[in-house]
Amino acid sequence: MELIIEDKPLTPVEQTRLSALEAIIRENFLAYVAVGNALLEIRESRLYRTDGGRTWEGYCRQLWDMSFQYADRLISASRVIENLTPIGVKEDGSIDWELMPANESQARELARLEPEEQQQVWGQLIDTKRAAAEVEQPLKLTAKTVKNAVKAFKGEQVGGAIRQAGKTIKPRKTAKTTRQSAEFIQAWESFLGQIEVERQAGWKHTARETVFTTLTNLAKVVGDCGDQAIRDQKIVWRTGNLGKLLAAGFGIFRIGANKTMIEQLEAAGSWLVYGEYENEAQAREVFDDLLLEPTNLQA
Fold it and tell me: What pTM, to 2 d.p., does this model score?
C-alpha cells in the first residue's frame, strides 16, 4: 500500500518568507553579471597595470586566484545577459529575471553564439518552456538544456555548410562513416570551446591568424595533403594590407586609447604594449621619434 503524504499549503507568512529567500538566491545567482561587468571594465581600460608591468593574466591570478580564461568567461556571460535583456523587459521597464539565464553556466553556453543567434536560441527555449507550462508539463532550463540547444543550432549551421561544400567536392570511393570516439568528441568540443574563449576576448591572448594556421595544419594532417590542396579549396588567410606590411618587415605602431601608451602590431588583430609613459606629451614625443624610421608606420 502506497503512503501518500498531503502537505498543508503555505500560509501567507510562509509564502512571504519563501519569496524573500528566493529573492536572495536569485540575487546571488546573478552576481556573476556584476562581476563580469567589473572585470570587463578593468580589462578594457587596463586598470590592472602596475609599474612592474603586470598583465591581465597576472592580475587575475594574483588578486582573485582565477585564470584569465575563467575571467574572460565571466565577461562573456555578462555580455550575454546584456544582449538578452530586451527579451526580459516588462511593460513597466523592469526586468523579469524568470525570462533570463539563471546562472553563469547557462549564459556561458550561449556565449558560443553570435549576439543575434543568442537571442534566437534563448527565445526558442523560452517559447518551449511556455508551451510546456500550458500543457502542465513544466520544463526546467538547465545548463545542459542550453548546451544541447546551442549544439543543435550550431549543428544545423555546420550541417548546411557541409552539405553545400559536398556539392562541389568529389566524394571518395571509400565507404562514408561518421563514427566518433568519446575521447575525440570531448577533445574537439574542448578545442572549439577554447577558440570561442579567444574570440570573445578579442584574440588578445592568441592571435586569430595563429588559430587559423593551426586549423589549416590540422586539415593537412587529417586530409594527408599539402598546401596546394588547401588553397584549391579556397581556404586562405586574408591578411589585408596590415598583414602584408608586417610580412614585408615594417613596424606598425599606434597611440593607445588612454593616450599615454604606445602599442605595436604583432600579428593581424594582435597588439602588444610597446611602452607606457607618464603623460600624453611624452608618449607623443616617443611616437613621433619612432615614425622617423623609414620602416615604421602609423596604424
Answer: 0.48
102, 29 in Cβ contact below 8 A? yes
Same domain, 224 and 130: no
List, in sequence order, the alpha helices (H) in 99-226: 104-110, 115-134, 143-166, 182-200, 208-223
Question: What confidence tens digit (pLDDT) does each residue in 263-275 have?
Answer: 887 766 667 788 8
What kind and span of H or E run contains 261? Answer: strand 261-267
Give every CB contact of residue 284 below 8 A, 6+ residues apart in sequence.
255
Instruction: Tell me which residue range forms the domain holding 289.
Output: 244-298
Split into its structural domains, the chain has a count of 3
pLDDT tens digit sequence for 66-82? 888 889 988 998 999 88
CB atoms within 10 A of CB 108: 22
DSSP assignment letter at 114: -
